């Protein structure tokens, strides 16, 4: 390197084509006791329309568990979003800032199984704080 060159520059070019709108489904639902059941139906219909019927049982179970947790911890509407890319991504957002913690429930415990199931069945999952609360998500590989 010559003495005249004191700084290196790297240019990164990314071509992002985005996600087609027909591969995104989003709902804003009130946190009612019937909301998890409603979400399972929405997931079932959406995945069916996307030709992902083999993914329906696990995806509707996991989405229902995340929504059940949101219903228990929030008073304001919950946002549910499904995205189809090379994976299926499900995001559930609510206004509670407390992040969930995975724990292995005891054999006689009635609560605490939802996130445990997500942890066991999803390819990846996570949670993050957002301006209005938190988002909990999971992804499943598309066969």
Could you please describe the fold and organization of this structure?
It is globular and about 70 Å long. The protein has a five-stranded antiparallel β-sheet with strand order 1-2-3-5-4, with helices on one face. The model has no long low-confidence stretch (mean pLDDT about 90). Helix content is about 30%, strand content about 25%. β4 (about 125-130) and β5 form a beta hairpin. By secondary structure, the protein is of the alpha+beta class. α1 packs antiparallel against α2 (about 55-75) and α2 (about 55-75) packs antiparallel against α3. It has a single domain, classed as Heat Shock Protein 90 (2-Layer Sandwich). It has helices at about 35-50, 55-75, 115-120; strands at about 25-30, 80-85, 85-95, 125-130, 135-140.
In short:
By secondary structure, the chain is of the alpha+beta class. The chain has helices spanning 35-49, 56-73, 114-121, and strands spanning 24-29, 78-84, 87-94, 124-130, 133-141.
Question: Which key terms come to mind for this protein?
Answer:
Heat Shock Protein 90; 5 strands; 3 helices; five-stranded antiparallel sheet; 143 residues; alpha+beta
Topology:
Layout: E1 24-29, H1 35-49, H2 56-73, E2 78-84, E3 87-94, H3 114-121, E4 124-130, E5 133-141
Antiparallel strand pairs: 1-2, 2-3, 3-5, 4-5
Protein name: ATP-binding protein
Organism: Microbispora hainanensis
Domain Histidine kinase/HSP90-like ATPase: 39-139
Order of helices and strands: EHHEEHEE
Total domain modules: 1
Widest β-sheet, arrangement of strands:
1-2-3-5-4
Low-confidence stretches: none
CATH superfamily: Histidine kinase-like ATPase, C-terminal domain
Structural class by secondary-structure content: alpha+beta
CATH class: Alpha Beta
In this structure, how is the largest beta sheet organized? 5 strands, antiparallel
GO molecular function, one term: protein serine/threonine kinase activity
InterPro entries: Anti-sigma-factor_SerPK (IPR050267), HATPase_C_sf (IPR036890), HATPase_dom (IPR003594)
Keywords: ATP-binding, Kinase, Nucleotide-binding, Serine/threonine-protein kinase, Transferase
Domain Histidine kinase/HSP90-like ATPase: 39-139
